[in-house]
User: What shape does this take?
Amino acid sequence: MSAHSGAVGKASAGRRGKDRGFQLGLLFCVAVSVVLLAVLLVDVVADGVGRLSWDFISSFTSISADQAGIQAALWGTIWLMGVCAAFIVPVGVATAIYLEEYADSTKWWNRLIEVNIQNLAAVPSIVYGILGLAFLVRGPLSLGNVVLAGGLTLGLLVLPVVIIAGREAIRAVPPSIREGSMALGATQWQTIWRQVLPASIPGIATGVILALSRAIGETAPLIVIGAVTVIAFNPTGLDSPFTAMPIQIFDWISRPSNDVNDYRPLAAAGILLLMILLVAMNSVAIWLRNRYEQKW
Amino acid sequence: MPDQPVTEPQDKPQEEEGRGLSRSIGVRAQGPAGAPAIDGLPPQKKKAREPIFDLEDVQVSYGPKPAVRGVSFDIGRNEITALIGPSGCGKSTLIRCLNRMNDLIPTARVEGRVLYHGQDLYGPGVDAVEVRKRIGMVFQKPNPFPKSIFDNIAFGPRVLGMKGSMDEIVERALTHAALWDEVKDRLKTNAFGMSGGQQQRLCIARCLAVEPDVILMDEPCSALDPISTGKIEDLMINLKQEYSIVIVTHNMQQAARVSDKTAFFTVELDDEEHRSGRVVEFDDTEKIFTNPSDSRTEAYVTGKVG
Assistant: This one.
């Protein structure tokens, strides 16, 4: 091998300079987003960590900032997520199965459904709030501004996320598995229920958790459908009025603070608690994906 | 349709003893008249051939143009029938219409008649799921389910609601597929941990567990090393006692080693440059490899064209 140094030559200073400049530009963009996030976090932690205690979690909100807590909103959020999950899991998974396993994508109506689901994922959340108000709270169903209506509204909002994640998980199961199952005389339904779904559950579960972690922070649709802001009791059932954590936080921020009652630390503590929940949910999603995802 | 296909020589013994030995490819033991290649074996050992499949002018299309057409031959009980030919000649397409796996492809269309014990598999009222219960299939790439070895075998019997002890069913199937001794101590472990050859034998065992009549094998050894291939070939010859086997293979030595009958497919171009496969010759494997009637068959089996 003749490897003397002149054979390849050196890049001109200009070319290397551009390369370096591009790298620095990218680094700057990364730094902007990370630093902004860090500043926000530090600010919230500084304001709120002092209020984050068991008393905060176990007390109801109060006009007196010293005694106020987030219990009603925390339970409201848990109820909402329960209703939301109970709605999106069966409906979302069934839709994903239909679109992946049964729908003939050469037919225009199936393509229409697909395009619409993708578009629905991008509709602003307030529009779902209006939908929930018009059809669930009032109108045909007239549920009133209760847990059931709130959970279903959030469910409609994140349903496209579940459908898209579910479809991807189902599509990741190789066709050879379906063929192997069908070749043994299994029906299409047996193949889906006993082979395709078990193999795609980790992906579906991840999608559901990510959908719920989007729903948990939604404020606008809940305000539109009339979630109560000041409430001093936990929801007792599906037909119970409710508040939720983002709404409680919004309420505290919008109250005028003074020397006697400073609500801002309460809001910061609420944000911290919400973030802890979010991080926990996303961690579970990541763990599920890494632990159970099938390598084909 | 007569019971005997026109292509089959009436005086030909179904010799088992001579299989594989006298079959050196390309060597002409006899003249072109097509006399039996093995001398001295009395012809009375021939048992009556019992066709289980009768293909009558079968044509399979994906979309407007046929992928394979004009296929007429029969498949006998307890025989191994090999489908050979160059890539794109429609062997796999054809084997997949013997258990209606082509139904899974929306654009696939089958014309002509695929008679199984005299019943048209594509006739009205025939349920593809019932067809696949009777006619099992092993695929090119081993496709174990992402479950334990035990559950892989038990899946078929469970979905078909088969009676009896599942432990016994699983042991019987694995023993049959010559896999029991290798896996009996790790039945609960995931099948993905097995070697490729073991996975393919697991797929065969899985197929045996539902007690089919026919086993279709679509290039079952193409992803395996020679040792695993040899094991599967031995297995096929053993299974022939109880099952009828159809195998697609690119490996001509494999066809010569294991099969009783061979169908040679080729690719034809029509006026619009569309490729479609058709059967050139169907005969005893012995004859296909030593004394084929068609020059195209001869060119292929002797390796002059690939």
User: Anything to note?
Assistant: The two ends of chain B are 34 Å apart (CA to CA). Chain B has one domain: 50-301. The interface with chain A takes residues 99, 101, 104, 106, 129-130, 132-134, 136-137, 139, 141, 143-146, 155-156, 159-160, 203, 206-207, 210 of chain B (CB under 8 Å). The CA atoms of residues 300 and 306 of chain B lie 6 Å apart.
